[in-house]
Amino acid sequence: MDGLRAIAVSLVVAFHAFPSMVAGGFIGVDIFFVISGFLISTVIFEDLEQRRFSFTDFFGRRIRRIFPALILTMALCLGVGWFSLFANEYQQLGKHVAGGAGFISNYLLWDEKGYFDNASNTKFLLHLWSLGIEEQFYIVWPLLLWGLWKCRFNAQIVIVSLAVISFYLNTKQVTNDLTAAFYSPQTRFWELIAGAGLAYFCLYQKHPLLARFETVRGLLREKWSLVLPVSLPVVLSHLQSLVGVALVCTGVYYITEKDLFPGKWALLPVVGCVLIIAAGPKAVVNRWVLANPLLVWIGLISFPIYLFHWPLLTFARVLAEGTPPIWVRIVAIVASFILAMLTYHFVEKPVRHGTRQKPTLLALTLLMLVLGGIGYGIFKANGVPSRYLNSPNEQPNRSWKLEGPGVTSCGNLVASGKVTFFCATTPEPTVALIGDSHAGHLFYGFTTSQHPVYSKAVIVGAGACQASLGMESTDGCTEPVEAAVNLAKNTPSVKFAIIGGYFGFVDSSGSERSDEFLRGFQRTIDGLKRASKQVVFIVDGPTFKESAEKCYHPAIKVREWARDYPSFCKGATAADLKDNTEYLKFVELLRRRNPDVFFYSPQDVLCPGGVCMISKDTQILFGDDNHLSTFGSKLVASDLIRHLEAIRKN
């Protein structure tokens, strides 16, 4: 059985490391399911038969078998992630650690995305979905078999019926909801039950193939005096194992991630694995291939190999921000084998075969609960962003935030549907920021300025909605924009109305729509001027062609050493920025029509000498490709306040 485990884990590892070369390698998980169902059910049937079955012993063995390597894997992921992951990445890892500790990873992933989606490549514990399904099976299956044994009910009928029902649900669900079919235990249990059914027949009918042969042999001799050679079962056993291997190889070769899997395709690895196991230890494949000492050794450490290989490959993928070089993937695989070997000898074996079983079980259970709690805490703490705040690795997802000292009101107009965001530091603000997130990302800079006038800020607007009044909109911007402008106009304490917005609306709208935006902005400006507000128009800052995250990843030194350091990180020129020519023409036209409006450009602050900087004084300026970080917000707001103060004094 260890040799078959080795084949299964090798297929999975090969697929994860070299998906284009071993396109169907993921069916190794299905082989694991059959093996697990067979081994677990064999133990349960034998214990029930000998009247020694105990739920305590059964689950105790499961804990000693699974918990040590799993706890170590998840703890190492959290430890390495603390120093190398961004808050959003670490938050997701915390969530998946909690799910892994509770053996519900398949349900969490089901609620997120499909197994083969690109986003899945950055989920460090994606592979725990299969462990979740196995553990859910281990909870239900012994209870069911124990109940059947107690009631003296025919287990064979129940096993076959459940397998058929689960397989039917699988074939139906795979066309309706592929993600559900992949992660749902109801559509996967038939694979484990296939192994369980084989265990039942092997135990109660000795060898299924031999039993059938003896029946046929007796009938032929009795009715037609035909005598079949005794060696025929051996030949058929060899043939059976070869057919099983052929089915598995066919699955590896023909099944790809584009197929509706599991569905009917899963029959290839499942039936193939059943045939190989049923052929017995003397079959040619089982004896001469699967019994090979190297495969047996790999099989012994297959569980920790499975646990370690995916996080290592994922860390490599995240650090490389894409598919890492072949040599890196090979190193990750070798490292997973080394870690697995060390785990097997120094963690798994001592735990499984130690003498202090009860204290060990208690300690493992408590460790798993604590680890799950830590993971959940990290998830609820948004990935603990304070790890990198005020450092060169400040978090990208904190590119701007609607908070600051003295914020007394935030979001109280959201419920009415009038504006998407509304935050204020005082009931009597002097500054109103109007627009989308490109107005919003200055809020932090204003509210933390400690200036007696300009720190009293309010922000009103809606995401992706330009402060352009009177435009017909299908994206829900008409009412929020009108409410935002009216709030600024009708608040007596507001002296400065600052308009900001992402420049992309010009290029994406076309000339006719651009003219409509121009008229809308003019209506906004005219209304604010009639309300005696000093209008300030923020000329939008640079937008990079790539996210600035590439420049301050915690492992940037590794990528710089690998000569994959993005050139724009040391200073972005026009070639690294999205073209804003049409937008600047739009701004110039608006400027000519409004000589009394102050047009402020952050260009001198962010792009001195025409070179746009990603960081300044070891602090990052941008959180992504277009939003300011909190440090960038403070820098730009400080410069703008200097200009506003000059206007106010004049």
Note down, in words, how this protein is organized.
The protein contains 25 helices and nine strands. The mean pLDDT is 86. The protein is mainly α. It has two domains: 2-224 and 232-387, no CATH class; 399-543 and 578-604 and 627-649, 3-Layer(aba) Sandwich (Rossmann fold). A hairpin with a 2-residue loop joins strand 8 and strand 9. It is 60% helix and 5% strand. The longest helix has 30 residues, at 55-84. Helix 11 runs antiparallel to helix 12 (267-278).
Please report which band the strand proportion falls in: under 5%, 5-15%, 15-25%, 25-35%, 35-45% or over 45%.
Answer: 5-15%
Large-scale geometry: elongated
Largest sheet, in brief, is:
7 strands, mixed
Secondary-structure-derived class = mainly alpha
Count of structural domains:
2
